[in-house]
Amino acid sequence: MTSGYLSIVNKSNENIEILSIDCSPIRAEIHETTINAKGLMKMTKPNSVVLESQSSTIFVPGGKHIMFWGLNEFDSKYLPCSFSFVDGDSINFNFLVQTRG
Ligand SMILES: [Cu+2]
Predict the structure, then answer these.
(1) Which CATH superfamily is domain 2-96 in?
(2) Residue 50 CA, ligand 1 centroid: distance in Å
(3) pLDDT for 101
(4) How many whole angstroms from 12 Cα to the centroid of ligand 1?
(5) Are the beta carbons of 63 and 35 closer than 8 angstroms?
(6) Count of helices and strands (H, E) across the chain
(7) Cα-to-centroid distance, 55 and ligand 1 (Å)
(8) CA 16 to the chain's CA centroid
(9) pLDDT of residue 72
(10) Ligand 1 centroid to residue 58 C-alpha, Å
(11) How far is the CA of 66 from the centre of ligand 1 (A)?
(12) How many A from CA of 4 to the centre of ligand 1?
């Protein structure tokens, strides 16, 4: 599996709620890393991610991230994806695909 990281700035005056990500044909999900009562790291799929008005939201190792399946066979440098929002809008963006040692 592979993880994707990004930062998003919401410059609008309203909160924006992301429902899902689509990077087909590559399977992708929004994940959140949490630590349970026993101190174990666990990944969960949140129902949505709220981007607060006039602030930035970051996806980083140990926090929110995008989980990919099947990216190892992906032979292009950029993976086109889109976020879908609660209001029905969506936004397209590209992930830069890199191998990390
Ligand atoms: Cu994950």
Answers:
(1) PCu(A)C copper chaperone (2.60.40.1890)
(2) 18
(3) 63
(4) 28
(5) no
(6) 0, 10
(7) 24
(8) 14
(9) 85
(10) 15
(11) 6
(12) 9
CA of 63 to the centre of ligand 1 (A): 9
Q: 3-state DSSP: the chain helix, strand, coil percent, rounded to 5? A: 5, 60, 40
Instruction: Give residue 15 CA to ligand 1 midpoint distance, Å.
Output: 24
What residue has token string 């044909």? 25
Q: What is the pLDDT along the chain (101 residues), one digit of tens a residue?
A: 799 999 999 999 999 999 999 999 999 999 999 988 999 999 999 999 999 999 999 999 999 999 999 998 888 899 999 999 999 999 999 999 988 76
Q: Which two tokens stand for residue 47?
A: 């129902």
pTM over the 0.85 mark: yes
Kindly report each contact of residues 42-45 with a partner whose C-beta sits within 8 Å and lies 24 or more positions away, as own/partner: 43/67
Decide if 67 contacts 43 (C-beta within 8 A).
Answer: yes
Q: Judging by DSSP bridges, how do beta strands 64-69 and 55-59 pair with one another?
A: unpaired
- What's the 3 CA to ligand 1 centre distance in angstroms? 7
